[in-house]
Every structure is written in C-alpha cells, then in structure tokens.
C-alpha cells in the first residue's frame, strides 16, 4: 500500500458516543491524510470540511429496518444540508427472503429523494449467500445506485471479505463502484480488498493503515 491509497478512503466515524470534538478531529485527520471523504452520522450536518474533502453520511443505519419513506426523507435532508454522498442500508431481511423487488424499491426511493448525490448501497454481505449478494447488487444497480458496499461494520455476521468484494465486482463490472468496509484494520487487509476489486474503502483506522501500523480500532 502506498500513501495514494488514502485517496479512495472514506474516513469513518459512526460510533454512537462520538462527540462534536470527535467529529472535528475526524474531519481534520481525514484532510491531513488526504482521504477522499469523511463518513459521518447524519445528525452532525451541516458540517464544514476543508476544500477537496467530500462529506458522506449514512441512511437507515445500521439496521436498514426503516420504512423507505423514512430513508428517503433522511436522504433528502442530508442532501439539503450538504452531503455529497449517502451510504444507505438495505432491508437485509427482505434480501434473505428473496424479496429483491422490495430491495430495489427501497434503493430507488432513496435515489429519487437525492438525485444529485452519490449513492452507496450497504448490503451486509456477510449475512447473505453468494446468490443473494448477486441478486441484491443487481437490484441496487437497477435502482440507480452508484456503489455497492459490503457492510455497516456493526452486523454480528461480520464485515468485508475478499470473496464478497470479488463477487460484487464481478456482478457490477465497471458500471458501479464497490466499497469494502467493516473490520478492515491492517494495511494487508486493505490491500487485499483493493486487489479483490474495491474502488473505495471505509476505514476508521485510516492513519494506522496508511502508515502501515497495527490497529485494533473499528467503527
């Protein structure tokens, strides 16, 4: 990994106990490291970031078990308050049930609520079978997503895996981005995700990873 890896990182702070000081420190660190964006909880908006740093916020986080109308409203508000990107969580239960039309409708509701904002769809790949991962990626693409994303980092099934990232990339080709997030704590793990096909990384241990040091932190 080289320093340039920071340019595809969403430097992430989603801990429920995060304070205003934590948010400010995360933004400053993201800028210092040259990260692509800072990924935060939506209630911190509006927030000032240095020029060149994008702002991403989560939607329907972390369970995804919100009504689509609520997710859409959250997305619309975030866009109006300056979010450049949205990371929305699908209804994982609908995917497990095979109700991919419901997943597609859910994603489309958020897409239509914030048409000018980059939309990443969190699928919780560790909780899904390969067939379900493929179907959810296809539903997300059909609904207008810009990225598919492995994980929230909060699901007990786990976070990103090389296998899931490779499968997601094979499904969406070069038409969508693939974001790997959840449990990526080392330089080696981040490198592996990029080799598997990730075009964006969600990291909270960005400094340690960019500098090649070990870290035990997570989202």
TrEMBL record:
Q: What class of enzyme is it?
A: lyase
Per the UniProt entry, what are the Gene Ontology biological process annotations, in alphabetical order?
A: 2-deoxyribose 1-phosphate catabolic process; carbohydrate catabolic process; deoxyribonucleotide catabolic process
- Principal cellular location given in the protein's record: cytoplasm
What is any one of the record's Gene Ontology cellular component terms?
cytoplasm
An example molecular function term from Gene Ontology annotations = deoxyribose-phosphate aldolase activity
Where is it located?
Cytoplasm
* Known pathway: Carbohydrate degradation; 2-deoxy-D-ribose 1-phosphate degradation; D-glyceraldehyde 3-phosphate and acetaldehyde from 2-deoxy-alpha-D-ribose 1-phosphate: step 2/2
Reaction it catalyzes: 2-deoxy-D-ribose 5-phosphate = D-glyceraldehyde 3-phosphate + acetaldehyde
What Pfam families does this protein's entry cite? DeoC
Cited Gene3D superfamilies: Aldolase class I
Checking InterPro entries in the record gives: Aldolase_TIM, DeoC, DeoC/FbaB/LacD_aldolase, DeoC_typeI
Recorded E.C. number(s)? 4.1.2.4
**Keyword Signal belongs to the record:** no
Q: What does this protein do?
A: Catalyzes a reversible aldol reaction between acetaldehyde and D-glyceraldehyde 3-phosphate to generate 2-deoxy-D-ribose 5-phosphate.
Q: From the Swiss-Prot or TrEMBL record, give the protein name.
A: Deoxyribose-phosphate aldolase
- Keywords linked to the UniProt accession: Cytoplasm, Lyase, Schiff base
Reading the lineage from the top rank, the first entry is Bacteria
């Amino acid at each position: 990994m080289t320093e340039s890896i920071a340019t595809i990182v969403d430097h992430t702070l989603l801990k429920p106990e995060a304070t205003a000081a934590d948010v400010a420190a995360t933004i400053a660190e993201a800028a210092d490291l040259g990260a692509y964006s800072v990924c935060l909880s939506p209630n911190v908006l509006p927030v000032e970031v240095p020029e060149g740093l994008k702002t991403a916020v989560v939607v329907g986080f972390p369970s995804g078990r919100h009504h689509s109308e609520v997710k859409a409203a959250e997305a619309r508000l975030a866009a109006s308050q300056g979010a450049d990107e949205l990371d929305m969580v699908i209804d994982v239960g609908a995917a497990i049930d095979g109700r991919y039309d419901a997943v597609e409708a859910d994603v489309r509701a958020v897409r239509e609520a914030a048409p000018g904002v980059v939309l990443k769809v969190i699928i919780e790949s560790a909780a899904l079978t390969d067939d379900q991962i493929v179907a959810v990626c296809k539903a997300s693409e059909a609904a207008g997503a810009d990225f598919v994303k492995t994980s929230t980092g909060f699901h007990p099934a786990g976070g990103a895996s090389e296998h899931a990232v490779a499968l997601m990339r094979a499904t969406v080709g070069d038409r969508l981005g693939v974001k790997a997030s959840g449990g990526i704590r080392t330089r080696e793990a981040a490198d592996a995700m990029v080799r598997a096909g990730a075009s964006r990384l969600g990291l909270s241990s960005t400094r340690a990873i960019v500098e090649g040091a070990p870290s035990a932190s997570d989202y």
